[in-house]
């Protein structure tokens, strides 16, 4: 709890700095406050989003903190805090929660390290001032000693009194000892400061890499805090400490050349590492289309005044991205509006270059290998400039590369291009060679990616469950085994091979479900009214003992972006059969909503397991139309199931709905 107590002490004087760490999207400050002792007693530093094997360990910690929060909520007399604690305890995901706590605690630890470094630098400066005073005193005493010797001898030809000379000599020896001791301590403290600066800067670079990695994985829906202000403050502190230490070393002289070289290298690293792609370009870019991106320089306030800093952007291919330190060779694309001026915003204290109307006029592609398509080829934007920093003698050439992008020429390529980006964002290693990705990943990693992408795109907190996971695994593997946990998914299975008996890939089908749900079914899904991902075998299993009229909503297995109604109906001989109404697509639901269609169909009465449909879906029904002022009779569309298409020989029938108006005309 010591860390939180220290933070609470600076909260009145630095509220913005503390509050930037604790937001509703990260860890609410109420949780940090009330559960401080428990949080600081756990081990968080080993958690990482890519380590899916830590999910169970993270779940244990999440369960524990939920119990702590619920207990605290019951004991809290403040009604607002009590309600907030209860709400927070219901909105956390295990591994994401553990990583968020890890990051917040590590940021504060890094801040403490920088604060400690600042104190050590102040100590160095204070020792140097004391040394200067002692040296002046020593010089004075030496002059007194010399004057006393020469003056007495000139007056009477005799040596000066021994007592006075001895006193001066003794004092001089004491001062020399103090100066030498201080000099040794001063040099050692300087070395310690450089070591500490190196350590702090390593932490900063590590945190900046983690920020970029989280920004990359945000494309698949993982949480991402885009606030760069804490990193900017940290970066500015490192630059300031470097400058003060360089001044101290220059005052000493040539005996510190090794330390001066270390500081020069640290200075170069922090200056060159501070260029960040704040707002990434679209990761799928269509030629001849406008797009924008923003680059931020964390040391913007330290840029030397005078000549404007102009950033240039260019497209690089995979081979060029691997050779950024050397000659890039010919341009692989013609990029329009590819320059922007670095401008400082005094309100936000940020220094950014915004490319507002860039466009790729044409692109030169590399030779493709085997079955590789143009939508699998990855490029990136490279931003570069020359910059002068106040207090530094020479300009620095700095550059930064964007996340990978796929360049397409037609909208029909968008779906496959997005699949390439998702595979890259989800499964690439942080320090990979550009733009290497694995050919296969575990099913668990794939499922977590599908869940994150689905929930983030649909903007829902209703996650996919174990039944959904099993169905999706059966679909992508074309296999009906019970345990998929040790199976590996290939890129080909994800978006190269068409599904058996279909004309589309797994990703094309899944992306169609996302689009349909996002545009027309978000609230239905979020309230748990859509069963969604379920195969026909499981469907028969759960509906077989249900009364006639029981139905559920599932995503179409055979059509991209469709939702169907499966329900139990009676057969002619008094038995039961399960029928599936032809899937409703995005176009169908634009004409008439799902709620109204459910209301229209009299054969469906109970949402599985036994919820009367008019109670569950009533709020989704449209209000009855009233006559217009012109006296016209209102006309409305209704859904009618055409039973003439029922196949009496099959166990599950397929019904075709059609929309008719109120007077019965098609």
- The rounded distance between the terminal residues' Cα atoms is 72 Å
Overall geometry = elongated
Radius of gyration: 35 Å
> Helical stretch count?
20
In the predicted model, the low-confidence regions spanning at least 5 consecutive residues are: 646-654, 660-666
| Beta strand count | 21
Give helix % range: 40-55%
The largest sheet is: 8 strands, mixed
Beta-strand portion reads 15-25%
Provide the structure class. alpha+beta
Mean pLDDT: 85
Describe the structure.
This protein is of the alpha+beta class and 666 residues long. It is built from 20 helices and 21 strands. A hairpin with a 4-residue loop joins β7 and β8. The longest helix is centred in the N-terminal third of the chain and has 63 residues, at 94-156. It is elongated and about 135 Å long. The termini are far apart.
In short:
This protein is an alpha+beta fold.
Which SSEs are present, and which pair or pack?
Layout: H1 2-10, H2 15-19, H3 29-34, H4 36-40, H5 55-75, H6 79-88, H7 94-156, H8 162-217, H9 229-252, H10 257-272, E1 275-279, E2 284-286, E3 290-297, E4 310-317, H11 318-321, E5 333-336, E6 339-341, E7 343-345, E8 350-363, E9 379-387, E10 396-401, E11 406-408, H12 414-427, E12 440-442, H13 443-458, H14 466-477, E13 488-490, H15 491-495, H16 506-526, H17 536-543, E14 550-555, E15 562-570, E16 576-581, E17 584-585, H18 586-591, H19 594-600, E18 606-607, E19 611-612, H20 613-616, E20 637-642, E21 652-661
Parallel strand pairs: 2-11, 14-18, 16-21
Antiparallel strand pairs: 1-3, 3-8, 4-6, 4-9, 5-8, 7-8, 9-10, 12-13, 14-15, 15-16, 15-17, 18-19, 20-21
Helix pairs in contact: 5-6, 5-7, 7-8, 7-9, 8-9, 8-10, 9-10
């Amino acid at each position: 709890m010591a860390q939180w107590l220290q933070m609470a002490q600076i909260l009145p004087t630095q509220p913005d700095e503390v509050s930037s760490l604790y937001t509703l999207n990260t860890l609410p400050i109420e949780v940090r406050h009330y559960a401080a002792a428990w949080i600081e007693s756990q081990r968080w530093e080993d958690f990482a989003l890519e380590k899916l094997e830590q999910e169970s360990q993270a779940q244990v910690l999440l369960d524990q903190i939920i119990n702590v929060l619920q207990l605290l909520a019951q004991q809290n007399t403040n009604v607002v805090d009590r309600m907030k604690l209860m709400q927070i305890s219901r909105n956390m995901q295990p591994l994401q929660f553990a990583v968020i706590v890890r990051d917040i605690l590590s940021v504060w630890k890094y801040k403490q390290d920088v604060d400690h470094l600042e104190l050590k630098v102040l100590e160095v400066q204070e020792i140097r001032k004391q040394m200067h005073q002692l040296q002046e005193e020593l010089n004075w005493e030496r002059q007194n000693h010399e004057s006393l010797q020469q003056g007495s001898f000139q007056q009477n030809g005799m040596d000066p009194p021994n007592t006075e000379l001895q006193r001066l000599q003794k004092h001089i020896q004491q001062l020399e000892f103090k100066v030498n001791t201080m000099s040794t301590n001063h040099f050692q403290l300087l070395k310690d400061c450089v070591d500490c600066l190196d350590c702090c800067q390593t932490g900063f670079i590590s945190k900046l890499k983690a920020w970029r990695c989280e920004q990359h994985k945000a494309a698949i829906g993982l949480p991402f805090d885009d606030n760069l202000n804490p990193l900017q403050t940290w970066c500015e502190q490192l630059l300031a400490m470097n400058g003060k230490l360089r001044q101290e070393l220059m005052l000493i002289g040539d005996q510190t050349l090794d330390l001066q070289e270390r500081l020069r290298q640290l200075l170069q690293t922090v200056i060159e590492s501070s260029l960040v792609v704040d707002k990434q370009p679209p990761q799928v870019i269509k030629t001849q289309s406008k797009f924008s991106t923003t680059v931020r320089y964390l040391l913007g306030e330290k840029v030397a005044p005078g000549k404007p800093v102009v950033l240039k952007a260019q497209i690089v291919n995979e081979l060029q991205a691997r050779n950024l330190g050397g000659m890039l060779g010919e341009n692989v694309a013609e990029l329009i509006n590819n320059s922007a001026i670095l401008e400082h915003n005094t309100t936000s204290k940020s220094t950014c270059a915004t490319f507002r109307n860039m466009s790729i006029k044409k692109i030169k592609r590399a030779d493709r290998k085997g079955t590789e398509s143009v939508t699998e080829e990855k490029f990136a934007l490279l931003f570069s400039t020359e910059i002068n920093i106040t207090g530094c003698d020479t300009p620095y050439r700095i550059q930064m590369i964007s996340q990978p992008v796929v360049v397409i020429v037609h909208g029909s390529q968008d779906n496959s291009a997005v699949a390439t980006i998702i595979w890259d964002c989800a499964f690439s290693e942080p320090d990979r060679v550009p733009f290497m990705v694995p050919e296969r990943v575990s099913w668990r990693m794939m499922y977590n990616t599908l869940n994150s992408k689905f929930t983030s795109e649909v903007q829902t907190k209703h996650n996919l469950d174990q039944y959904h996971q099993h169905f999706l695994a059966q679909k992508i593997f074309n296999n009906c085994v019970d345990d998929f946990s040790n199976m590996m998914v290939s890129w080909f299975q994800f978006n190269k091979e068409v599904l058996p008996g279909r004309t589309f890939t797994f990703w094309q089908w899944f992306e169609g479900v996302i689009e349909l749900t996002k545009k027309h079914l978000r609230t239905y899904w979020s309230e748990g009214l859509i069963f969604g991902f379920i195969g026909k075998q499981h469907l028969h299993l759960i509906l077989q003992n249900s009364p006639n009229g029981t139905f559920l909503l599932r995503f179409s297995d055979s059509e991209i972006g469709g939702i169907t109604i499966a329900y139990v109906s009676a057969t002619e001989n008094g038995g039961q059969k399960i029928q599936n109404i032809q899937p409703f697509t995005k176009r169908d639901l634009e004409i008439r909503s799902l709620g109204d269609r459910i209301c229209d169909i009299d054969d469906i009465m109970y949402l599985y397991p036994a919820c009367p449909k008019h109670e569950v879906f009533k709020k989704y029904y449209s209000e009855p139309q009233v006559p217009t002022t012109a006296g016209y009779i209102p006309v409305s569309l209704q859904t009618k199931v055409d039973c003439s298409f029922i196949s009496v020989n099959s166990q599950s029938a397929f019904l075709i709905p059609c929309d008719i108006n109120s007077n019965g005309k098609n």
